[in-house]
Specification:
mainly alpha
Length: about 120
């Protein structure tokens, strides 16, 4: 029979994994199911790939490292609507979201570097 402490330790160890898997599903699973990822692939594999809603071509080479170039081209198509200025509300929302994401990452990084967390799972 499992003690309460052992059970709570097991739950505490599996909870971050479950949250991460749910986040991955929300980011990529839903995007795949509604056809967003396929439309991005269609844009990038077109004969002359253009940014959505414009006549500007998609830049396909950045560093001449194919996996990195493909990832950056994909990001260019995904974030084009936020950065081109056609929707100021979306641009402000993206700026606010990135500010919150960066601040949260900094807090986690500082917390992991604390002396009390040096020998725990929190230490990065």
């Amino acid at each position: 029979m499992m003690t309460d402490t052992a059970h709570s330790n097991r739950v505490a160890a599996l909870l971050p994994l479950a949250i991460q898997l749910a986040g991955l599903y929300c980011m990529f699973g839903v995007a795949y199911q509604n056809g967003y990822i396929q439309s991005l692939i269609d844009i990038l594999t077109a004969k002359c790939p253009l940014l959505p809603g414009s006549t500007n071509p998609v830049l396909l080479q950045f560093f001449r490292i194919p996996p990195l170039d493909h990832l950056l081209s994909l990001a260019q198509v995904m974030y084009a609507n936020f950065t081109d200025g056609s929707s100021p509300k979306s641009s402000l929302y993206a700026l606010q979201f990135s500010g919150q994401l960066v601040s949260l990452s900094v807090i986690i990084w500082i917390e992991s570097a604390r002396m009390g967390n040096q020998k725990t799972k929190m230490f990065l």
